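Recall that a protein's primary structure is simply its ordered list of amino acids. Everything else, from secondary elements to tertiary packing, is in principle encoded there. The following example makes that idea concrete.
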Amino acid sequence: MEKLFRTNDIPAYLIVRLILGYVFLVAGLQKFIFYDTRGPGRFIDMGFPFPEFTAYFVGFFEVFCALLIIFGLATRLAAIPLIITMAVAIITTKIPQLGEGFWTFAHALRLDFSMLMVSLFVLFNGADKNSLDEKWFNKD
């Protein structure tokens, strides 16, 4: 349990958490706000089973985990659903674009790949000294 909530001393690490949290918070909220283009309508277009449930399920986890990461609470655990979300997004929406050419694929992949890599970084590093993980779980 100690390793799960261990924090680090990476300078300016708070910026990494805020970037990741912001991107997922905005993406998650848009699944509730924009039915046709970001929410269930998009999941219908992609052929997901149970598109309404799936869109709101993903949106909930994006918002919830983003807030955990922003505040630095259970940071490593919060990164896991985001990693899964990005892996599924890449497989279902980006890999098919390889048929349109490498550069079209690479362009479409850039944000999803960045979000996946930053989520992995947070999983491996936990939170920082400016987090609730540090305040609540790392008392000396």
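The two ends are 15 Å apart (CA to CA). Strands lie at 7-8, 127-128.
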